[in-house]
Amino acid sequence: MSSNLHPMLNVAIKAARAAGAIINRAALDVESVRISQKQINDFVTEVDHASEKIIIETLLTAYPGHGILAEESGKEYGAKDSEFVWIIDPLDGTTNFIHGFPVYCVSIALAVKGKVEQAVVYDPTRNDLFTATKGRGAYLNERRIRVSKRTQLKDCLISTGFPFRPGDNFKNYLAMMSDVMQRTAGLRRPGAAALDLAYVAAGFTDGFFETGLSIWDVAAGSLLITEAGGLVGNFTGEADFMEQRECMAGNPRVYGQLVPILGKYSKFASAGDKAAVRQALAADTPTAAEPAATEAPDAAPAADAAPGEDAPL
């Protein structure tokens, strides 16, 4: 740890590395990790809990008067009325982790009077440490990082996350993805939002968007973005997004181009935009009179086709 860093950031780094050590040890034999399900497609492991425990212990040992907001334990630990609140995601990308897919991270942020002032995103598989202190810039392994300089959407790589829980508006997301994919060089879905935001800050990708995210998914990454010269907000471009469950980020030029594309899908869009989206989605929905695909002349009759099942939305 560097003596030049803010002391609270140094403690957060210590906590993140301790959690990363637990995660890396468990990753050596991931099939033996106990897994439970919070809801459909939303998993938690004993590693999440152990990682969160060491983070909280490390932070509260140094700052016993601070508050805690953690993904697994909520506000159970720490002071309840402190102006200093640590926002923790002990293992972002749990589904990746339990499959042995090496894209996951630890995310720790410190909010002071509701504003994020310290941020750590740690990727234990690559030993990549992303850090930021408000007003002091963003860093990857002690090297200053900046958002990309690309200005045209057609040259840009954009990351996202797919809806996967019951109740998610899957058709809406398909429409968003379609609008973005047709205008960019590529769309990626790595599976860990905190790391996605860190990659935008480092210039590895040019932009990011996702709905359904919680504050612990985006708190640390949002400071990395702004300290690296980027912008982060909701789909309409408003900066006060942290608990609105929709997040968009990018370098300033890309961000400005994503707003008119994604803004109409925002929960805060105008009534006219929402109506236009509904009409467009309805127009794309196949009906009994309009089959989804035209049969080839030699295709077997529909009655002989194997039955299929739609995934629950």
TrEMBL record:
Chain segments carrying region Disordered: 280-313
Compositionally biased spans, kind Low complexity: 282-313
GO BP, one annotated term: signal transduction
Required co-factors: Mg(2+)
CDD domains recorded: IMPase (cd01639)
Residues spanning the membrane: none
Pfam family of the protein (one): Inositol_P
EC number, as in UniProt: 3.1.3.25
Domain of life assignment: Bacteria
Keywords: Hydrolase, Magnesium, Metal-binding
Main EC class the enzyme belongs to: hydrolase
Binding site for Mg(2+): 71, 89, 91-92, 217
MF annotations from Gene Ontology: inositol monophosphate 1-phosphatase activity; metal ion binding
Family the entry assigns: Belongs to the inositol monophosphatase superfamily.
Protein name: Inositol-1-monophosphatase
Annotated organism of origin: Acidovorax delafieldii 2AN
